[in-house]
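Tip: read the tokens left to right.
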């Protein structure tokens, strides 16, 4: 038979209201993390908020803003477009946010279209000044709309192919690159990215043959030199590898993308000191959208600087690129 004390305990338990967090709780945690620039944590909290309250458009919009902050512009626009389709014009600010993302991607026609839509729908809206300034910039070259259209299409191909290459999704990249080579035959990078994807998809002999052929046609091609250095290194053909890496060591490009190509090639082939020096001279602000920047820079830092620096780079890269969270530190594979 229960005692008086037992009955009191049972009564007390009955009066306790369990704490079950709702969407607002997770959302506020996510916003706090966002303001502290802890983007990976912010994404986790906002995702929980969305799970709890999937019909709360504000949560989706905040998620898109975080993705914009880390450079995932396509992903941000997917979310914003979904919000507009489900909530009509209840969240007009989405038009400006989409325009801003398209501008970052270089898709100027799309950016202009969404900026105009925002100003038409909300002439005195929160982003009025920003949208007006953006439209002014976009309309500077209004007479060259036909160039914009071709440029936009090329950039879409580039961004999508780049996405698959960075994630080592070779088959998807090859399909896009084949189309690019047909539609934009003068776009030199596409054919070299094609041979690179071909090599790592297993068609090594064909990839090497293509690059050797292209190098004969253009002996100064940095694309061919870097690809062949990597190909021969992977195939343990030391003499041929040394021939191409020697040429690369004497090249100091002007453009950041080419500088990154040289740095990653040196790191990929075990020349960590040379790679580290090249990485140190790169502009992080221009290359933070590249997974390869963080992956190979961290490996070079591990061998030349310190494990602490390597880990810091890896942590920073993981905040910007979720794919790195799925990988182990590269120095553990050696």
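Filled-in amino acids:
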């Amino acid at each position: 038979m229960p005692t008086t004390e037992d009955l009191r305990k049972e009564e007390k338990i009955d009066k306790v209201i369990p704490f079950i967090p709702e969407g607002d709780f997770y959302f506020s945690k996510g916003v706090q993390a966002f303001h502290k620039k802890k983007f990976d944590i912010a994404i986790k909290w906002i995702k929980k908020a969305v799970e709890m309250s999937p019909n709360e458009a504000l949560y989706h919009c905040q998620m898109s803003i975080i993705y914009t902050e880390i450079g995932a512009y396509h992903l941000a626009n997917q979310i914003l477009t979904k919000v507009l389709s489900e909530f009509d014009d209840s969240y007009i600010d989405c038009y400006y946010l989409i325009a801003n993302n398209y501008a970052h991607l270089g898709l100027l026609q799309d950016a202009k279209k969404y900026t105009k839509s925002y100003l038409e729908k909300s002439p005195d809206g929160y982003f009025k000044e920003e949208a007006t300034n953006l439209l002014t910039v976009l309309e500077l070259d209004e007479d060259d709309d036909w160039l914009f259209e071709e440029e936009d299409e090329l950039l879409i191909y580039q961004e999508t192919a780049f996405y698959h290459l960075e994630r080592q999704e070779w088959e998807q990249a090859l399909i896009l690159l084949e189309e690019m080579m047909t539609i934009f035959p003068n776009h030199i990078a596409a054919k070299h990215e094609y041979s690179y994807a071909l090599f790592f998809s297993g068609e090594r002999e064909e990839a090497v043959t293509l690059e050797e052929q292209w190098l004969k046609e253009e002996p100064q091609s940095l694309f061919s030199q870097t690809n062949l250095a990597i190909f021969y290194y992977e195939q343990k053909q030391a003499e041929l590898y040394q021939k191409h890496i020697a040429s690369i060591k004497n090249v100091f490009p002007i453009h950041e993308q080419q500088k990154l190509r040289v740095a990653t090639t040196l790191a990929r082939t075990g020349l960590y000191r040379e790679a580290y020096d090249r990485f140190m001279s790169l502009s992080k602000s221009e290359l933070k959208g590249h997974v390869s920047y963080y992956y190979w820079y961290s490996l070079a830092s591990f061998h030349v600087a310190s494990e602490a620096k390597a880990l810091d780079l890896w942590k920073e890269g993981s905040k910007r690129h979720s794919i790195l969270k799925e990988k182990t530190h590269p120095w553990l594979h050696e």
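The chain is about 75% helix and 0% strand. The chain has a mean pLDDT of 84.
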